[in-house]
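Example noted here:
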Amino acid sequence: MSEHILIAVFLPTFFFVSITPGMCMTLAMTLGMSIGVRRTLWMMIGELAGVALVAVAAVMGVAAMMLNYPQIFEILKWVGGAYLGYIGIQMWRAKGKMASLDDQNTQISNQALISQGFVTAIANPKGWAFMISLLPPFIDVERAVAPQLSLLLAIIMMTEFVSMLAYASGGKSLKLFLAKGDNIKWLNRIAGSLMIGVGFWLALG
């Protein structure tokens, strides 16, 4: 498959899958609502690193082994899910002011945001299954694998970043809209509920 054909087929395919609401996109929207787009970029760095790792592992065949031993995911899933749920509960409890992950009770560092995105990306078995099913058909085993994988990764990183940026921006817009009136409490509850939902999604998915 030539590079032009690969891009023409793979780009719209992966973009459609990437832009579809999922754990990472919901997390991006919630963080955009809570801490703003700029700080959410740190989570995106971790998520992109996780997605890249999953993609490389899928092509190398490691993902097949991982799917046969799903218990490998359990610790990451439950710890990550519990942490997101805890943050969501703290946001629900905020009343008179805008809940933020930078509040005293829920301080979170840039490194923690990176880890949050990374764990969310690699602890999702559905993400591994998707990469296994999508990537191999686009790899020509008769040609050097590294250049092909590099091109696919570039497409994946671009589409994931654009999608997360769109969701984070949407969250920020929702925050600005709801904050105009006496809707701080509801905004906190929406963001908190989304965060708790992502936590359950991660732990039980």
Observations:
- The first helix runs from residue 3 to 19.
- DSSP finds nine helices and no strands in the chain.
- The radius of gyration is 18 Å.
